[in-house]
Amino acid sequence: xxxxxxxxxxxxxxxxxxxxxxxxxxxxxxxxxxxxxxxxxxxxxxxxxxxxxxxxxxxxxxxxxxxxxxxxxxxxxxxxxxxxxxxxxxxxxxxxxxxxxxxxxxxxxxxxxxxxxxxxxxxxxx
Length: 126
Known about the structure:
Helix content is 52%, strand content 19%. By secondary structure, it is α+β, with helices and mostly antiparallel strands. Helix 1 (5-24) crosses helix 4.
């Protein structure tokens, strides 16, 4: 389902604000991992935000999401402090692992490992 302009605009604002929140005290939320907010999808009524995070190193992703789930209400409160005057409802947050980069890297490795012989010139003439 496609999002409206309003959902997209609000999602980008939430993404920016969450990024700022996480940058202020990254060790509190993520330990020693590097985390990037890669996208936010908003529900039609703007009350729910699916937040996609990219985690490096990948092996720490499970721990990062566990820590975030424990601190979800704290993150929502900090978000409310940033946007509370502009919106009626502070959206509920759900965090998801964005593994697009890992999948792209895996596909690159697969393609690089293929052994494709060059085409013979006789085949091109036919």
